[in-house]
Amino acid sequence: MSLPRRMFAMLMGAAFIAGACGSSNSTTVPSSGNSAGTASQPASSAPVVITSADFKYLIDGEPTTFAGVANDLPSSYVDYAIYNALYTADNKLNMVPDIAASLPVTSADGLTWTVKLRTDVKFHDGTAMTADDVKFSYDLMSSTNCSQNSDVCSSIADNVASTTVVDPSTVQFVLKQKFAPFLTTGLGSVYILPKAAITASMARLTGTASGQAAAVATEDKKVQAALNADACSAKTPPASCDAATYVSEIEPILQAAKVQLPDKNGYKDAKGNPDNTAYGTQLAAQLHDLNKTLTSSATDQIAASLKIIDYAYAPIATGPYKWVKYTAGQSIELVRNDAFYGNKVGPAKVYIPIYKDSALGSAALQKGDVNWQYDVSSDWTAKILADPNLKAAQYPDFGYYYIGFNMRSGHVYSDKNLRQAFTMCVDHDKTVDVATSGMGIPVYADEPPASWAYNTSVPKYKLDVAGAKTLIESSGWAVGSDGVYAKAGKRLSTTLYVRAGKPQRVKFAQLAADQLKKCGIEIIVKESDFGTVLIPNVLTYPNNFDTYLGGWSTSIDPDTYSIFHSSKASTAALKEGNNFIGWTNPQADALLVQGRQELDQTKRKAIYDQFEVLINSEAPYYFLWADKRVSGFSKSVQGTIDLTSPVYYWNLSTWTVSR
Question: Where in the sequence is the domain holding 254, given as residue range(s)?
Answer without folding.
Answer: 211-299
